[in-house]
Design a protein that fits this description.
alpha/beta; six-stranded mixed beta sheet; 6 strands; binds uracil
């Protein structure tokens, strides 16, 4: 563990900056935990090489079988059933927000500051779904308020839209620690909620930003570079909504050369809006 008293302020600030750059930007408990020491204590003694070579390929004894997988799978199933039930029982967006805030089945909630539910107009004809909150969204409690959000606002403005004309949410409503990609389990647990959110907003157009949103909501394995710019059907209750996967603004910030493709997709959207009489 680092002895903060022994470090001068500048070195300490540099260390914190390095932690933040590596995605370590949150203390999960008051006391530090030395995981290296823990795993060193738990590791079984390795077989000596000669004995290992002689040993038969039979499965390890029951006492050395991993014990956590069945329990974890079971609790994931229970949590998933709870998510489906809670989401389906929400009669409106406010109820859905309350049920999501009370839902403890997804571990992302434990490390996030708060739920990031939505921004924009609940009666909008256009709904935008991103991946998950970043640090700014986690702090402020609204989706797309950081750098990627500012680029999203400019993209919307380029085709005559703003936040009063769209409704914005994410496939996971809690910030993944260090902005990592949500795991398939986390996405699956949050899916019933975002699907119900789409059903309650009932937009005419769904814009799916990036891999996580496009693949999860379209149940697709194909990556966003192939999905982007092509209209798809999103089935929602008794309605079919037109869905357009697009490049995520955070990706465009890292890869500005791809902005030309994003611009093409925005024009595709504008064209469809014009044909549908959406201003
Ligand atoms: N990126 C997202 O996908 N969603 C946000 O809310 C912010 C950044």
């Amino acid at each position: 563990m680092i002895d903060a008293h022994a470090m001068d302020r500048e070195a300490l600030a540099a260390l914190l900056r390095w932690y933040a750059a590596m995605g370590v930007d949150r203390a999960l408990s008051d006391e530090p935990v030395d995981r290296f020491a823990q795993s060193a204590r738990k590791a079984p003694a390795a077989d000596p090489p000669a004995q290992a070579a002689r040993s038969s390929p039979s499965p390890p004894p029951a006492s050395r079988q991993p014990m956590r997988a069945p329990a974890a799978a079971l609790s994931q199933d229970v949590a998933a059933a709870g998510a489906r039930e809670q989401a389906a029982s929400a009669k409106n967006l406010e109820e859905l927000r309350e049920k999501l805030a009370a839902f403890d089945g997804c571990a992302l909630k434990n490390s996030a500051t708060q739920l990031v539910f939505a921004d924009g107009a609940p009666d909008a004809k256009i709904m935008i779904v991103g991946e998950g909150p970043g640090a700014d969204e986690d702090r402020i409690g609204k989706p797309f308020v950081g750098r990627a959000g500012r680029l999203l606002d400019k993209m919307l403005a380029a085709i005559g839209l703003d936040r009063s004309k769209v409704y914005i949410a994410n496939v996971v409503p809690w910030r993944p620690p260090g902005n990592r990609t949500p795991t398939p389990q986390e996405l699956a647990l949050c899916l019933p909620f975002v699907r119900r959110q789409i059903e309650l907003v009932s937009p005419d157009f769904l814009i799916l930003l990036g891999n996580a949103a496009a693949q999860t909501l379209l149940d697709e394995k194909e990556g966003i570079m192939r999905l982007r710019g092509h209209w798809r059907d999103y089935h929602c209750g008794d309605r079919t909504i037109r869905a357009l996967p697009m490049l995520h603004p955070a990706y465009l910030l890292r890869t500005p050369l791809k902005k030309a493709q994003a611009w093409r997709d925005l024009r595709t959207l504008r064209h469809a809006l014009d044909r549908a009489g959406v201003s």
